[in-house]
Design goal:
The structure holds 2 protein chains of 2 kinds. Chain A has 6 helices and 4 strands. Chain A is α+β, with helices and mostly antiparallel strands. In chain A, strands 3-2-1-4 form a 4-stranded mixed β-sheet, covered by helices on one side. Chain B is α/β, with parallel strands linked by helices. Chain B is built from 14 helices and 17 strands. A 7-stranded mixed β-sheet of chain B has the order 4-10-9-8-7-5-6, with helices on both faces. Chain B has a 4-stranded antiparallel β-sheet with strand order 13-14-17-16, covered by helices on one side. A two-stranded antiparallel ribbon of chain B has the order 1-2. In chain B, helix 5 (about 140-145) links the parallel strand 5 and strand 6 (about 150-155). The chains are: A alpha+beta, B alpha/beta.
């Protein structure tokens, strides 16, 4: 049960239920679709980028509490940041959820502010892809990927 | 001195005794009793099946249909004995009407590729239902794309029942094959296959029945049904993975061309021409899953030693109890309320995503399926992308249901429903 509490923290439940920035952006300069064929989670990430800075971000989709909360908190944490910075955040988030070494995982999440609440996901390997889906989709949008992102 | 056990009289169904036959049920997961409610995906194996596979490898293994030596003959006898066992299970008229395959998926692909390619042409129709497993949808779509046949889908109602009137209306002059499930894997609906076959026979149309979710729960008699093809997977019937059977009427199987070419399916080969083997080996190219077939035979022995009447009595009572207990949970919605239910209960809970429910239940060592159950059109029909599915087998008991219900109350707590 304590691991469950770590996974489903208040902030995650809150954002899962009432995702922020849950809207398309008409003037998006970048956009990508992500799909988890295993559970049917779907997410579309919209970015407005001016120069190298993300001036607006939104998402739409449906999925489990983990994927929705991850998308919601991701949008909050990347707004106003530079593209290179966001890519570094992706790497840290990924390490924080997947590193075998616990200290490395904890260390990676430490600088990501609120995103530290996803630390509990690491104990549930099958759910890592739920939390990663919005981030992978974000990177695809930055890369202007033509193919939808798949978690498989 | 060892105690002499009295000859056992026909025993009433004793689920505690049944559970002892399944070694895996004795294990704990994170210190908790394993609550296995995913048998519709794949059932656990009784010791007799595990022992049968071990025995053939340890004592009677060689390739089949090849050697003149004693060991190969023993293996061949065991393998062909398994075929006879499957014949008995389905009450097929002849053993040669039983083709061993990897599972129901391969069986349906075999029929689509062999029967379909040979006897169906552009504009011909295959009729299925809205509650098929992907395995009884995709092979027909592949045939459609290759041969320009038409795939027709009979609708289901809000209870998850087949709309028989609409089904009958969809049978037309170009309908060449009807392929329906016996029990819907995502909803648990028992389809009135007798009625389906009667409608088809009145028009002389062959019928394939996907029996995957039926054979673990009820006796099947393909002669009484008068279906033309019947398919099932061994692993859902407490047998090994990688083995299943296609029943086909001999007349049809004989008319069908081979599907895969290779060893064992031939009588003679020259570079100019090949003469094919007779039934059923015509459809069994390459070395078959010998140990799997022997394990399947053991599983059939096992289920028959318990008896389908006892199995059905136990499971019907347990399903009714589960439906009753689940219905007491606030904001729980059971998906599909068929008059005749078998094996599975699909449900949604208060808008919580099934994967979140699955994770929370897993914390209590409860194994359920969370997802679309390889039946996305069924999910879409009920306006959900996924459900939680609890499925029941002979080894489940009321304790399993009670733990599930307690686990769902934890979901309530975590998600503050």
């Amino acid at each position: 049960m304590s691991e469950l509490r770590d996974l489903y923290q208040e902030l995650i439940l809150d954002h899962g239920k009432q995702p922020r920035n849950f809207r398309p952006i008409a003037t998006a300069s970048h956009q990508a679709d992500g799909h988890n064929p295993l559970c049917g989670d779907k997410v579309t990430v919209f970015l407005a980028i001016e120069g190298d800075r993300i001036t607006d971000v939104g998402f739409q989709g449906s999925g489990c509490a983990i994927s929705m909360a991850s998308a919601s908190l991701m949008t909050e944490s990347i707004k106003g940041k530079a593209e290179a910075e966001v890519r570094t955040m992706f790497e840290r988030f990924h390490t924080g959820l997947t590193a075998k070494d616990e200290a490395a995982a904890v260390g990676a999440l430490m600088d990501l502010d609120k995103l530290v609440v996803f630390g509990g996901v690491r104990e549930f390997p099958i759910r890592v892809k739920c939390a990663m889906l919005p981030w992978r989709t974000l990177v695809a949008a930055l890369d202007h990927a033509q193919q939808p992102v798949k978690t498989e | 001195m060892t105690a002499i056990r009295p000859i056992a009289p026909a025993q009433p169904f004793d689920v505690a005794r049944i559970r002892q036959d399944f070694p895996i049920l004795a294990r704990e997961v994170r210190g908790k009793r394993l609550v296995f409610l995913d048998s519709a995906a794949s059932a656990q194996k009784p010791r007799i099946v595990i022992d049968a596979e071990r025995h053939i490898y340890e004592a009677e293994y060689a390739n089949v249909h090849r050697g003149v030596y004693w060991l190969s003959q023993r293996a061949t006898e065991a393998f062909e004995g398994a075929r006879e066992k499957v014949r008995q299970l389905l009450n097929a008229r002849e053993t040669r009407e039983i083709v061993f395959v990897r599972g129901a998926t391969e069986a349906i692909n075999l029929v689509a590729q062999s029967y379909g390619r040979c006897f169906l042409s552009a504009g011909d129709e295959v009729l299925i239902t809205h509650m098929e497993h992907h395995a009884n949808i995709v092979p027909w779509q592949m045939l459609r794309d290759e041969r320009a046949i038409v795939l027709r889908v009979a609708p289901i109602d809000d209870a998850g029942e087949l709309d028989l009137d609409a089904f009958a209306r969809l049978i037309g002059p170009r309908t060449r094959l009807i392929a329906v499930t016996h029990v819907a894997n995502a909803l648990g609906t028992v389809i009135p296959v007798g009625e389906v076959i009667r409608l088809a026979k009145a028009r002389g149309i062959p019928v394939l029945i996907d029996g995957c979710q039926a054979v673990p729960h009820q006796a099947v008699d393909v002669q009484a049904l008068d279906c033309d093809f019947y398919v099932f997977s061994g692993h859902k019937l407490y047998g090994p993975t990688g083995i299943g059977a296609l029943y086909g009427k001999a007349r049809l199987l004989q008319a069908m061309p081979p599907w895969q070419g290779g060893g064992d399916m031939i009588r003679s080969v020259t570079f100019e021409r090949t003469e094919y083997n007779e039934l059923p080996w015509k459809f069994e190219a390459g070395t078959p899953h010998i140990a799997g077939a022997v394990g399947l035979a053991a599983a059939i022995d096992y289920i028959q030693s318990i008896g389908y009447d006892a199995v059905a009595a136990h499971e019907t009572e347990l399903l009714a109890y589960a439906v009753r207990e689940l219905s007491k949970i606030n904001s729980l919605r059971i998906i599909g309320e068929p008059r005749h239910r078998s094996g599975v209960i699909s449900f949604a809970l208060g808008g919580v995503h099934p994967h979140d429910i699955g994770t929370i239940l897993d914390d209590d060592a409860i194994c359920v399926r969370a997802g679309h159950h390889c039946a996305q059109p069924t999910m879409e029909r009920f306006g959900v992308s996924a459900t939680v599915r609890a499925s029941f087998a002979i080894y489940n008991d009321r304790d399993d249901v009670d733990v599930l219900v307690a686990g769902l109350r934890t979901v309530h707590k975590v998600f503050q429903l």
